[in-house]
Specification:
By secondary structure, the protein is mainly α. Helices cover 70% and strands 0% of the residues. Helix 2 packs antiparallel against helix 3. The N and C termini lie far apart (36 Å).
């Protein structure tokens, strides 16, 4: 998305936010429609569990609806809702205080666009012969071994195609920190998946 498209989307979002703040439920439903898939994709990639992702995604939009009156437009709605989703998911995983049971009954279709998938599947390795579902399983297992912060940047950048600047706003850190976390996370993923790259 180029800058003019992004500005138009942000302006449209803001219009829907103002209408929703005035009590227009249909306007908020449009915001949910716009971002449900991306929020679900983020949460699923962070938890690797379909039921948890569905529940958390619903909780994120309910929490955002309740907090909409406090939305101060210091960032776009997109950034704000992603921050809510990321924080809610990290808190959920901390409360679990144990490694998630991983559910692979479905895979994130965005994985085909992931830089990690493109990189690993183009190296003439075993991964080229793996099905997308098998790759998703191996990648999710590797992602779960990353820290929350590192997993978040990989999901947002490599899977969802978010630019460094947006990730920096969502995570409230510098773009340099985002790049550093991304570099470290990719190295960790390469080590985790090394046996499949022979």
């Amino acid at each position: 998305m180029d800058t003019s498209e992004q500005q138009k989307t942000e302006a449209d979002d803001l219009d829907f936010v103002h209408r929703a703040q005035a009590g227009d439920h249909a306007a908020y439903e449009e915001l949910v429609r716009r971002y449900h898939g991306k929020i679900y994709g983020l949460v699923y990639s962070m938890t690797s569990n379909r039921e948890d992702a569905e529940d958390l995604t619903q909780e994120v939009f309910v929490k955002a609806w309740k907090a909409l009156g406090r939305f101060r437009e210091q960032s776009g709605f997109y950034t704000w809702i992603y921050r809510i989703a990321l924080n809610r998911t990290i808190n959920f995983r901390k409360k679990r205080n144990r490694r998630q049971n991983v559910s692979f009954d479905e895979f994130d279709p965005d994985i085909k666009q992931a830089e990690s998938y493109k990189e690993f599947s183009s190296k003439g390795s075993v991964l080229r012969k793996m099905s997308l579902g098998e790759f998703q399983k191996k990648m999710n297992e590797a992602l779960l071994r990353l820290s929350e912060k590192h997993r978040a940047v990989v999901v947002m950048h490599d899977v969802q195609g978010m630019p460094h600047a947006d990730i920096a706003r969502i995570t409230r850190c510098s773009e340099g920190t985002v790049r550093s976390r991304l570099f470290y996370a990719r190295k960790q993923l390469q080590m985790e998946l090394a046996e499949f790259m022979k």
